[in-house]
Amino acid sequence: MSLQLFISVLFGILFLLIIVFRVLEPAYLLLFNKPFYIHWYPFSKKLKSSQRQILVNDFPFYSRLSSKRKAYFEHRVSEFIAKYEFIGKEVVITEQMKILIAGTYVMLTFGMRNYLVRLFNKIIIYPSSYFSTVNEAYHKGEFNPRMKAVVFSWEDFLLGHLTSSDNINLGLHEFSHVLHFHCLKSNDPSAIIFFDEFNEAVKYYSDPVLNNELTQKDYFRLYAYENQFEFLSVILEHFYETPRVFKREHPELYAHISRMINFKEEYLK
């Protein structure tokens, strides 16, 4: 077989696979409520040993993963750090900052295929709470779509990361806003599932009977009831920080959130 014929056959097979995939995945999505595949990295990237050690020491979610999933996690962290710019305001950007911030985002989106979004292109870090021109007030963090920036007070980000049982995690909170905005606009399989399950979950905010069920049990902090966006972010903080309590107190809502982000129970082991 000539090289030209081989290339033609190869492209023909690839084209056929793409067509079959585009036909099959929507059906798979309807049947199983998850994408056909999540992780596939022909040229997988690895972290440096010093970067990996930060995950080992300071990221329990990573430590609970299997060896195969740890490799997926590291690849995604590496891709995140390469894609987004880290900018320090009165603070020097360190490797720990990059790894923990990237790891938080990767943890939140680990069950989604298309995880790198265009809604932001930079992470801005202040040493502590900062004055925001958005509403002329001091903030601990924010997602600013106009500036395409996610902003953190490092002091508060680190406190949220290291305190794992108070259901307050600044990194998860702000990245949840990013994910919410992305899935409202995107039509990729993970975003479609996210949007459908969010519409079910948000009924616990908008429906008086379901909302009363939540407020009576008093599991979620009051900030969850500010609006739909804060409702989702606070719920995701609780989902990752005290998942077993969440599942016990509100099993149906927990199931919606689990499907929304394609979360695997085995990650908790």
TrEMBL record:
Record carries keyword Repeat: no
Keyword tags: Membrane, Transmembrane, Transmembrane helix
Protein name: Zinc-dependent peptidase
Taxon lineage: Bacteria, Pseudomonadati, Bacteroidota, Flavobacteriia, Flavobacteriales
TM regions (residue ranges): 6-24
Species this protein is from: Flavobacterium ranwuense
InterPro entries: MtfA_fam (IPR010384), MtfA_N (IPR042252)
A Pfam family that the UniProt record links to this protein: Peptidase_M90
